[in-house]
Design brief:
4 copies of one chain form a homotetramer.
Chain A lengths: L3 E8 L2 H5 L7 H20 L4 E3 L5 E5 L5 H14 L4 E8 L2 H15 L11 E3 L12 E8 L2 H6 L4 H23 L2 E6 L2 E6 L4 H15 L3 E8 L2 H18 L3 E3 H4 L1
Parallel strand pairs in A: 4-5, 9-10
Antiparallel strand pairs in A: 1-3, 1-4, 2-3, 6-8, 6-9, 7-8
Helix pairs in contact in A: 6-7
Catalytic activity (chains A, B, C, D): GTP + 3 H2O = 2-amino-5-formylamino-6-(5-phospho-D-ribosylamino)pyrimidin-4(3H)-one + 2 phosphate + 2 H(+)
Family (chains A, B, C, D): Belongs to the archaeal-type GTP cyclohydrolase family.
Protein name (chains A, B, C, D): GTP cyclohydrolase III
Chain lengths: ~260, ~260, ~260, ~260
């Protein structure tokens, strides 16, 4: 049984800040956002977690292994180094979607994302170390079959991007509504999906669905672990098996 | 008439590097990619351009105001500070899509994105200073009407993301195939679109199309300028007018 | 009794890299070095340690609270994101100077700093958690009395810098040879000193020595803790007392 | 005749900020300072200038090639991305020390470094493009002869640092008072010196002085150029000649 710990990271009152007193230079906003994400990714990643940039002003992280004290330290450190501050909602559960809903609700209860009086909230609970197990996190790492040969080296860069984006958009909706999973584009042609306890047949169904719906062929490696890093690292190895053997679905715990 | 200068920024042989000799830690890849993007965004942004992260291993920039010497310096500076190197294709034209196609073709002609012998290519031409005009770039800045009230403060963070992503996916395809434009999600609920010489009716058609197709209400401010920054800055101001007045399309040159 | 854990961080074969095949742009080297330091400072700082930039190619850190696994993770993460790699020597002891000597020797035994075959060494031992105590680290935080009023707002910026640098150079040598301590300039007019078990009289002697030798008036706050952060944070509070009360030496454990 | 353009970069009201409302975590301050420096170094470096971290809260840059508009853009960009803001004083002259004095005075006239009402000042003048010449900047790049063999691989890392620091401290004072030059430690065993129109005999005298005063052997390459980068790049090449040929002073314009 999975027990995913999910953190919603929300920049406090960000929209208004970007246009006060005048709209700020777009290149500066892009730089600031992506460095903020990078710093959070390092902090969480050094403790075994994964952070996804999502909308940048709202990031989603899998934080099994991070205590509430760790979350508070992250908040303090960002507050010391950036012109914006973070609110964090943390929740856990067998369903990643449900955990994220709970985490979101905790922040929404504390105030609007554009409430200037809601600052640096930290709400929720983390899994105590004694309760963590090697099945807590299930990660699926998808990519597009032969994306470089079929797209990058053939189409113009934007049409390639449309193809990959279309595959992602379909996969994200399908994994959300059919399988209770959270899918994130992570660059190139890669999508990382945070899953509940899914099985081989679920992944076969998902890749078949995307191929039929938008004609994008995907392959997927899946791993389990105590943390996102452990699960995701196994998923990467499983995906390497797909690439080497030409298979479409590999579950690390079946092949290992 | 627009004359957009587009640069395709491609990390050399990146896919293979990420799994050699073993898959690298995902958090490190995410950190490295987003900081690389941030640095390019600063460099280009300091010269009036816009950079979009796109797929991270393939980024697209509007570089009116950057000479080929500037491009070479960017390449050198990144090569000195990162474990990866960049190839750059540059092209210009009245159609942003055609300019990007030309830029892409120049890199494809130089070798595959995964050819380990193709390193730090710089191909193409920039617009000479004497030929630059105040109409060269047209930028449209879209966002979702009342995204915070309708989505962020109501749905869980992933379902909000799905809504915004769906609006983006539809807009991106429509603007590409109906209007020859390049659309990029830039965080929050914002999409920046690099356009040829479009008119009010085109933008009204586009927002109506997205509303009908996926039920996401968008508003848009549009600007023109000698550089992406100038055009984009005007677009931001026009979008502020939408927000203040409740209108759906504002062209800065009509209201100014 | 202090038990300081010291890590020597050495960039592998850095000198030759900076001029191969041609000298690299100085601004790029400066940027790369200072960001590398910043990343190490965050990683170590998030675990309660302090990192000092020292010579940049050789950095010194107080790492009580960082295991060898943490050190290995830092090494891996930097290796994934920078064009250079790190070797790390770790040692502990009641004397910070002796601990650093041991840490240095471990790296020297593994090979020259400019041996191209010595890469990513990790040598030494960390203090096991059970053996850590609240007296392990003693940190003294010095600054120059009224530096802004006496120097920054009066002299040109370089002559101010010379005054502060002169105070630092004298303090560093004196604390090293008279008190077995490691002193690091950390910006502004601040010097942080990693000390063995010193007492009030030692600090009074040190500030008197510097005042007499180079005519720079300094004040100092001192703290103790299980980690550099804890000791250093107490030292900062003690220094605030100096600033408020006009005293020259404050030991947090006497005033608390 | 040299005509050095010098910029004093001062963080506004920084000291008070670091302890308000409580002292901030030292690791965060170190990270923030060094990244701020890195960003300024990139911005100025991309336009041919050099930036020196100096005291971090007061940095000194050689900015030939940067207009006042560039300075204003740097100020705006940093203000958009950091929790602190910058004031900038700019001045030019045949003597680097005099130029820095003038730049400092302009900021001092605008208010104290700790005046909370003095924010984002930009004072002074830049050299108009038409007046720039290939002799405007003279840069000398010093390092310690065989520092790795004599120190790094032999002494503990702190004692090596003391030796190099002592060489630097002596050189900095001597070059300031005997030769009107500004010397900056830039990492490793390297010192970069911004000079007026000095000659071979001056550099021979300086290295001899340091060797006699503190027993540290240094060598130096010197270059001239329109910008710090051009002069500094020539200086690096000249220093490579010292290393290859065992000479102590090389002036690029004599050997080229």
């Amino acid at each position: 049984m999975t027990n995913t710990q999910v953190t919603l990271v929300q920049i406090d009152n960000y929209g208004p800040w970007t246009v006060t007193p005048e709209p700020r230079r777009e290149a500066d906003l892009q730089t600031m956002q992506s460095r903020l994400f990078a710093d959070i990714s390092q902090f969480v990643g050094n403790r075994g977690g994964y952070t996804f940039f999502t909308r940048f002003d709202n990031m989603i992280a899998v934080t099994n292994g991070c205590s509430l004290e760790d979350h508070a330290l992250l908040q303090e450190s960002i507050g010391n180094r950036y012109p914006v501050s973070l609110s964090l909602g943390v929740a856990t559960g067998t369903s990643p979607v449900q955990a994220l809903s709970d985490a979101t609700e905790r922040l929404q209860d504390a105030g609007s994302a554009q409430d200037e009086n809601r600052r640096e909230c930290l709400e929720g609970r983390a899994i105590a170390d004694d309760y963590r197990t090697g099945d807590d996190v299930q990660i699926a790492h998808f990519d597009v079959v032969n994306a470089t040969g079929n797209y990058t080296d053939e189409l113009n860069a934007f049409d390639t991007f449309i193809e990959i984006e279309q595959g992602y958009a379909e996969l994200m909706r399908h994994m959300r509504y059919a399988h209770g999973s959270l899918s994130f584009f992570v660059g190139g042609d890669n999508v990382i999906v945070v899953c509940p306890d899914l099985e081989r047949a679920d992944y076969e169904e998902a890749t078949a669905h995307v191929a039929e719906a938008v004609d994008v062929e995907m392959q997927v490696g899946v791993g389990r672990g105590k943390s996102a890093h452990e699960a995701g690292y196994d998923a990467k190895h499983a995906l390497e098996t797909c690439r080497a053997d030409g298979t479409r679905v590999e579950l690390e715990w079946e092949t290992a």
